[in-house]
Design a protein that fits this description.
Length: 267
């Protein structure tokens, strides 16, 4: 029987032959399961092969359920892994099938399994791409409070602009019938989406719309600048070793111990 350390190396690492074979096989199963869900949404195919697709869906779900349980078994802190990004994705990739027993149609949410394909970067040794992904996630996390403040400012701004446009155009023109509708228009205009379903007809309204359009270009650049500033500060990692103790990944190439908890890394 394979011990937990060996099983952890196979399931979580891609540096060994067995680990790489495990991950490649898993990727093909993920692709097949996503394709099955997509094909099942085509009515003509669903009517003809409903039983076969239903059977395949359960086979894939059982495989992923066993894999998820094994991942929880081999780590020292199952709850911590379950709360991690991939732990949550792994769980969400199996829940829709079980939920479909009670809520019809929820099985189509299984396309979230496509997110598990992110492991291809680790398997194919494309650590640089994985590292850049971690860069972005770290930058977004550090930018969260600034972005929240920025969004609060934008919401305040569109409320004022929408209310102003309502006063200028008034309900008599037919389109700006109330303030919520005017706020919706302000959001669409400020973000430069411009659906064109609501348009001002008065000269003052068109002038205000032009001002909001110009403001949109400047406002869109703000969150980009916030995240870019954090990207330039974020640190990088070098490989794919995963700590069994705390689940931390992407250590330095020559690391023998986890930089988060001090646990010895198995290479």
């Amino acid at each position: 029987m394979i011990d937990r350390d060996r099983l952890h190396e196979i399931i979580f690492e891609a540096d060994t032959r067995e680990g790489k074979l495990f991950d490649i096989l898993l990727l093909w199963i993920i692709i097949a399961s996503v394709v099955t869900v997509i094909v099942d949404s085509v009515e003509s195919i669903h009517e003809r092969y409903q039983n076969v697709l239903y059977f395949l869906e359960w086979i894939f779900t059982i495989i992923f359920t066993i894999e998820y349980v094994l991942r929880l078994y081999v780590v020292k802190h199952p709850i911590k892994y379950a709360k991690s990004f991939f732990g949550i994705i792994d769980l969400l990739s199996i829940l829709p099938t079980y939920i479909s027993l009670f809520i019809a149609g929820s099985q189509y949410l299984l396309v979230i399994r496509a997110l598990r394909l992110l492991r291809v970067f680790r398997i194919l040794k494309l650590v640089k791409f994985t590292r850049e992904g971690m860069h972005i996630l770290l930058a977004l996390r550090k930018s969260l409070y600034k972005i929240v403040i920025f969004l609060a400012f934008v919401l305040t701004l569109v409320t004022i602009l929408g209310s102003t446009m309502y006063m200028i155009e008034g309900s008599s023109n037919g389109m700006f019938s109330d303030i919520p509708t005017s706020i919706y228009w302000a959001i669409v205009t400020l973000t430069t989406v411009g659906y064109g379903d609501i348009t001002p007809v008065t000269a003052a309204g068109q002038f205000l719309a032009a001002i909001i359009m110009l403001m949109g270009y400047a406002i869109i650049a703000v969150p980009t600048g916030i995240v870019s500033a954090e990207l330039s500060k974020s640190a990088t990692s070098e490989n794919t070793h995963t700590c069994r103790q705390c689940g931390h990944a992407f250590h330095e190439d020559d690391a023998k111990f986890c930089k988060e908890c001090g646990e010895e890394l198995h290479s």
